[in-house]
Amino acid sequence: MNYSEFIETVRSKISDMSADDCEVCLKEVVKNNGISQVGIFLRPNDGRTKRTVTAVVYLDSYYKAYGECGNLDEIAAKVYEAASCRASSVLGQECFADFSEVKSGIFFELVNYELNKEMLKTRPYMRFMDLAVIFSFIALNTGDEFGTVRIDNNFLKRYNLSEKELWEIAKENTPELFKASVLSMSEVLCLKNSDEYTENMCVICNEKGISGAAVLLYENVLEGIANKFDSDFFVLPSSIHEVIAVRAPDFMKTTELAKMVKNVNKTVLCGEDVLSESVYYYDRTNKCLKIA
Fold it and tell me: In 43, 205, 206, 285, which residue has its Cα 20 to 30 A from 179's Cα atom?
């Protein structure tokens, strides 16, 4: 069974399971780096308002599981359970009439500019080297559920905002909403005894572990790492969720570091998590980050 047949069959089976309780909908979502995924969500037929927008359960992993077990009924039941548990996870930007409802949840993220050119045509953004700063807001945060929505140009029109105003709001919010986390490699690997190698590398992310590369734009974070290293340092973009800082005098040449980054992007990361193939360099004297 090919992927298209799988999707339609799963949708049909879930419709039978849910009877008249909800409408089973398919949605194709273009995610980061132009990666497209198809998912299923449930629209409850219980009279709830349009503020109830269901979360999408993406089907790629379930298709792989079907290839391993061959049991469609079992797979469809798992998709239905996942969709039902997340039936009110995310609210769309059109659901918020008052800007005060979203302002405190606006934050910024970092993505690759070239790989997201098509997406950026419809969204406010700022260039940052070979990257782009984009904006989102937290639509739901209950502790158990956390959902975000990316901001498009219609959002600016709806609330009569400029890109500069959006940036100022996000610049203030983001370090508070997603507190920076800078851990030495020995801490990340839970090593009892660190050495010079592990102490001269650190992982930069945020406490939530999502879109952590944006910490590169936080005030004083890079300066603090340079002070700890007592040196300039390289930044390796391991993913959109985290980057790695390595003390400049102690590591290989830029070309070798770039090969490492490209290899990780190709063999370890899924396509939508790739940030860049560039290696960056933090100049301690001038307090600036640039492409190495």
Answer: 285
| 131-141 and 106-112 strand pairing | antiparallel
Tokens 């070979």: give the residue: 130
Strand positions, DSSP E, the chain: 22-30, 36-44, 57-58, 106-112, 126-128, 131-141, 146-150, 180-184, 201-206, 233-236, 243-247, 280-283, 288-291
146 beta partners: 141
> In this model, does residue 53 exceed pLDDT 80?
no
* pLDDT class of 255 with cuts at 50, 70, 90: confident
Asked whether 277 and 112 are in contact (CB, 8 A), the reply is no
Nearest to 27 by CA among 18, 35, 36: 36
CA distance 110 to 132: 6
Q: Partners of 30 in the beta sheet?
A: 36
Contact 131, 276 (CB under 8 A): yes
- Measured between alpha carbons, how far is 245 from 233 in angstroms, rounded to an integer? 6
* Rounded mean pLDDT, 270-281: 94
Q: What is the pTM of this model?
A: 0.82
Are residues 51 and 31 in contact, defined by beta-carbon separation less than 8 angstroms?
A: no
- Give the model's pLDDT for residue 198: 64
From residue 193, how far is each of 187, 204, 225, 228, 278 by CA, in Å?
Answer: 10, 21, 21, 18, 32
DSSP summary character for residue 12? H
Question: Structure tokens of 279?
Answer: 């290696």
Query: Distance (Å, rounded) from C-alpha 108 to C-alpha 216?
Result: 11
pLDDT tens digits for range 63-101: 999 888 888 999 999 998 888 776 454 455 555 668 888
Q: Indicate the Cα dihedral angle 57, 58, 59, 61, nearest 10°.
A: -110
The amino acid that residue 277 corresponds to is E
